[in-house]
Design brief:
alpha/beta, Metallo-beta-lactamase, Chain A, eight-stranded mixed beta sheet, 19% helix, globular
């Protein structure tokens, strides 16, 4: 069944946390605006980069706007610090969305919720985000646990939960929460060393809570924003096209999870598949990894945009 996403005049994505920062890059354009180290008339402003992701997404349609917070960064203070550094007002945020239940995406939720300042604001999330215990297994004897993400902690923040495993429209139909993403490509196989326990039995964690959000810019096509794309960024884009019925892709942005030796072999394949999709802009972030980002930049130089913490990207009709 096709779900129609209303066409927006403009989508603005302000990155509140990402892995990289350069405050003197001097490469701002009409589409891309960098954070600056200036406060008042002095060079004294800092923006923090961490291994995490958070973004404020604003949809413009006529005289109306819709704002959502997508992911919340790693540390308790990082994204919140950047909100203050960038003079961002979160009070008009109407919905919270979590891409999946890993700490580099939910760690800063409490402080950001406090800055939103609204009681009973809604968090949209796949129910598997609350799976626990989750861990990375290196050997049969060695594992590292993920901190738990719990329903109780969310409710303690004064946030109401909307658990969705399938696609769900937000922001008066201008943003689509994709829900669980089918694994259809033959090369995107997820995180091989991710596991969880189910009634004492160890099982591979396919991270089916991994999801993305989608907007539709008038005359330009889909803007697809992922958190980590554990489902595979190609699977994510193809599913967004299938669900919305829109083939044209304007922007693919987010973590593509191509960092480290487990994913080195699929960087070329993923890049070739992205070329076939032919987005106007490609914006790899967070867990995409240095080697993959450099390869995508080289192979898709005209489409490539380098993201940073504090960067505002504006995609217009």
């Amino acid at each position: 069944m096709t779900i129609s996403v209303n066409e927006a005049d403009k989508v603005e994505i302000l990155t509140l946390q990402d892995n990289y920062i350069d405050l003197v890059s001097g490469d701002s354009t009409e589409i891309l605006k960098r954070a600056l180290p200036v406060k008042g008339s002095e060079i004294k402003n800092s923006v923090l980069a961490e291994h995490g992701f958070s973004a404020l997404v604003t949809i413009f349609t006529g005289a109306r706007t819709h704002r959502i917070l997508f992911d919340f960064g790693f540390s308790e203070h990082g994204a919140a610090f950047n909100v203050d550094a960038l003079d961002v007002d979160l009070k008009e945020v109407e919905t919270l969305v979590l891409s999946h239940g890993h700490i580099d995406h939910f760690g800063g939720m409490r402080q950001l919720v406090e800055k939103v300042g609204r009681k009973d604001i809604k968090l949209v999330v796949h129910p598997a985000a609350f799976r626990h215990p989750r861990y990375i297994k290196f050997t049969e004897e060695m594992r590292i646990n993920f901190p738990p993400f719990t329903r109780e902690a969310v409710k303690d923040m004064g946030v109401s939960l909307l658990e969705k495993s399938g696609p769900h429209l937000l922001a008066d139909g201008f943003i689509l929460f994709l829900g669980e993403i089918p694994r259809t490509s033959d090369f995107e196989r997820g995180m091989p060393n991710a596991f969880y326990e189910d009634q004492g039995e160890a099982k591979h964690d396919s991270i089916e809570d991994d999801t993305a959000i989608v907007a539709n810019v008038k005359g330009q096509g889909l803007v697809i924003l992922s958190g980590c794309a554990h489902s595979g960024i190609i699977n994510t884009v193809r599913y967004a096209q299938e669900v919305t019925g829109v083939e044209k892709v304007f922007v693919v942005m987010g973590g593509f999870h191509l960092t480290g030796p487990d994913y080195a072999s699929i960087i070329n394949t993923t890049t070739d598949a992205l070329k076939d999709i032919r987005p106007r802009y490609i914006v790899p972030t967070h867990c995409t990894g240095r080697n993959a980002v450099m390869h995508i930049e080289q192979e898709m130089n005209r489409e490539f945009l380098l993201n940073m913490a504090g960067t505002k990207l504006t995609f217009s009709a």
